[in-house]
Amino acid sequence: MTITASCHCGKNTFRVDGDIPAQLTRCTCSFCSKSAPLRAYYTPEQFHVTSPPDGDAVYRWQTKQVAHHFCAECGVYTYSDSPDFQMDGSWDGVTRSMGLNARLIDGFDAAEAPVTVIDGKNLW
Fold it and tell me: Which domains, from first to last, does the chain contain?
């Protein structure tokens, strides 16, 4: 299955070679609590940015290991490129994960999907 997604203004577009996960993820860290994405996670090989890079902006904080992407035009949070953290906060030091803001997926109502909460406030 191919999933498509875009920010509010359409300047940032994405394609995912995969299905919408059965569960989305919400993180409680300080950044995610304020930006409020519901993430669908994919491997870097599945995730493709299909728009020119000029509309993309990146924010990194604390350890600088996570790149939070958002649209430079409309400001919508789009995706994260992060270590593939496990539910206990551990990471193998190599594997990456792409966390698409599922609210941007075309024809999908992320508010209706089951959500798993990651305790990012206390894990990192």
Answer: 2-123 (2.170.150.70)
With a threshold of 0.85, does the pTM exceed it? Answer: yes
Characterize 68-90 residue by residue with b for buried, 16 or more Cβ atoms within 10 angstroms of its Cβ, and e for exposed. Answer: bbbbbbeebbbbbbbbbbeeeee
Write out pLDDT tens, residues 12-30.
999 999 998 889 999 898 8
Distances (CA, A) of 62 to 11, 96, 105, 116: 28, 18, 28, 24
CA nearest 90: which of 123, 49, 58, 64? Answer: 123
